[in-house]
Amino acid sequence: MAFGDVKTASGLKELDKFLADNSYISGYVPSKADLSVFEALGKAPAAANVNALRWYNHIASFNAKERAAWGGQALPQAAGAKPTVAAAAAADDDDVDLFGSEDEEESAEAAKLKEERLAAYNAKKSKKPVLIAKSSILLDVKPWDDETDMKEMEKSVRSVEMDGLLWGAAKLVPVGYGIHKLQIMCVIEDDKVSVDELTEKIQDFEDFVQSVDIAAFNKI
């Protein structure tokens, strides 16, 4: 199955079809066969050729030194002709020795290169920031009666310190008969702060706090 001139629409279409089932032009590691087609293309294929574009970007990610170390054989090109899949298959057959006579040094070098690139990818991936799950909580803290010192109540509530807890704005909201409740906002890291534990710590201020309710709870 030849794909002819890869600069033509039909040739590029055949190349894209071939790369749907193959990672490389020849074999299982990048080789001079890939470099032949890469240079014949000259530029990235259109986005519609998704398989060819994936392959092209992958080959382009290697620098000149890495490409020079690739084994295999460049695809033979007739005057003015471009590489074909048939030529790639022939080159692949030449490279594979069913009786174990493959160039061991070349194979070891390709394996080492693959291992180094995998290690570099894993190192880069490990440096990506980890998403921290957080929640925004609005608490209703109710006093015993209208004689409760609300400033001291708020001061006591804010004295609660936990790793992953950040207190926000607060206000007094009338509930009737001269009694006000304290509405206070906080942000917590879900993996570090238990809402039940937080409300229990606030309720421990028995001189001020009658009860604690969650007025609003939103994931950030």
UniProtKB/TrEMBL annotation:
One of its GO terms (molecular function) is guanyl-nucleotide exchange factor activity. It holds the Pfam family EF1_GNE. It comes from the Eukaryota. Residues 98-125 form the Elongation factor 1 beta central acidic region eukaryote domain. InterPro entries: eEF-1beta-like_sf, EF-1_beta_acid_region_euk, EF1B_bsu/dsu, EF1B_bsu/dsu_GNE, Glutathione-S-Trfase_C_sf, Transl_elong_EF1B/ribsomal_bS6, Transl_elong_EF1B_B/D_CS. Keywords: Elongation factor, Protein biosynthesis. GO terms for cellular component: cytosol; eukaryotic translation elongation factor 1 complex. Residues 134-220 form the Translation elongation factor EF1B beta/delta subunit guanine nucleotide exchange domain. Belongs to the EF-1-beta/EF-1-delta family. PANTHER family: EF-HAND AND COILED-COIL DOMAIN-CONTAINING FAMILY MEMBER, ELONGATION FACTOR 1-BETA. This is Elongation factor 1-beta2. It comes from Anopheles darlingi (Mosquito). The lineage of its organism: Eukaryota, Metazoa, Ecdysozoa, Arthropoda, Hexapoda.
